[in-house]
């Protein structure tokens, strides 16, 4: 994810897609675990993958499906990084439900963009 823009930008160009047809699905520590939100554009909040996408796509105004993973107790960048790269602590069933909600959100976004 941290270097997603390196492939997303050229793919968008090759497919000749308008930016409003691009959807990024990403983890969001500023949302509680289980919450899913859609948005267009917005800040990058230190998310390296979103920074890369902005650079590769030439703008931050792409559609996003933000998947809440919760926030660790610490704000230390190393602790936060280890947290988002670790396995979920929640039960498998809850993680599967979260993935399904995110997938449903993507389906809704892509259906409305046609």
Description:
The protein is of the alpha+beta class and 114 residues long. It is built from 4 helices and 3 strands. The protein starts with a helix and ends with a helix.
Task: Quickly describe the structure.
With 114 residues, the chain is of the alpha+beta class.
Q: Can you count the helices?
A: 4
Mean pLDDT: 92
Stretches with pLDDT under 50, minimum 5 residues = none
CA-based shape: globular
Global Rg: 15 Å
Q: State the order of secondary-structure elements, H for helix, E for strand.
A: HEEHEHH
Query: Which range best describes the helical content: under 10%, 10-25%, 25-40%, 40-55%, 55-70% or over 70%?
Result: 40-55%
Largest sheet: 3 strands, mixed
Distance between the termini: 26 Å
SS content category: alpha+beta
**Major sheet: arrangement of strands:** 1-3-2
What percent strand? 5-15%
List how many beta strands DSSP finds. 3
Topology summary:
Layout: H1 5-15, E1 23-28, E2 36-40, H2 48-57, E3 63-68, H3 77-85, H4 92-112
Parallel strand pairs: 1-3
Antiparallel strand pairs: 2-3
């Amino acid at each position: 994810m941290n270097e997603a823009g390196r492939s997303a930008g050229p793919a968008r160009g090759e497919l000749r897609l308008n930016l409003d047809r691009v959807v990024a699905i990403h983890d969001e520590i500023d949302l509680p675990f289980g919450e899913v939100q859609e948005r267009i554009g917005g800040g990058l909040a230190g998310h390296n993958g979103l920074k890369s996408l902005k650079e590769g796509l030439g703008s931050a105004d792409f559609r996003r499906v933000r998947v809440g993973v919760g926030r660790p107790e610490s704000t230390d960048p190393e602790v936060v990084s280890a947290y988002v790269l670790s396995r979920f602590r929640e039960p498998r069933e809850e993680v599967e439900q979260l993935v399904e909600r995110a997938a449903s959100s993507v389906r809704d976004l892509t259906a409305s963009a046609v």
